[in-house]
Amino acid sequence: MSHPEIDLVQLQKMAQVNRQVINRLKERVSILETAIGLVCDDPQMAWLYKNRSERMDATLPLFPKARADFHLARYQFAAQYVANKSVADIACGTGYGVAYLKETGKASQMVGIDCCPQAIEYARSKHNPVGCRYESADALQTGLPDSTLDVVTSFETIEHVNDEQGLLAEFARILKPGGTLICSTPNGWPLEIAPHHVRVYDRAAFLSALERRFEVLELFNQNSGSDFKYNHGQAQGIIPTHDDNHALAECFIAVARRK
Hints:
7 helices; 8 strands; about 35% helix; 8-stranded mixed beta sheet; 2 domains; alpha/beta; Rossmann fold
């Protein structure tokens, strides 16, 4: 390759990087403008914006679109499993997923559990259709009755807790025999970029953890389609995991049955 051709390739790469930077800045400005309008008159919105690195409401334009879509896509995926079922969303956060599973997924009953009282207060205020309720409790001690739920959803939770098997034991306890667990975790994100995580999973570690109490029926790759390094340049979507693509997953979603 001649020197002019090399220079042209380098300029094209620089232009692409600069476009990405400019687009991020435009999105941040738009989010900030939206936030100013929302937080001035609503203390709960002010709380959400202040805690946006940990808390998400994917129904609001307060977050980068790719990130919000990534979170909401898990509930869209789970909705196909919950019709006419009794469901708990453990570590439900602000409750938008609970409301989605009730209203769009047509769950018969929904309960959201989260350890953060402010998140539960927000959920009760903003995402509380008929047939939903919320409780503030630890994910390892939900306070829910034994063997009463058809489905448990819990997204991006297991990597946050020190007692992995205690969490899975609680999920198994509250599910009916043969009940369904739908859960997710990041694939190989190092702890230095995820300060709230305590553990790193790859496919083998995730399956090994689940299989002590659950039969894993299906495993899926989820990718955001963003320029995040650990998206591995993949298109947005949720696809079945197999030997040739598991390393490319940004996150995994497992569908499992209580043993």
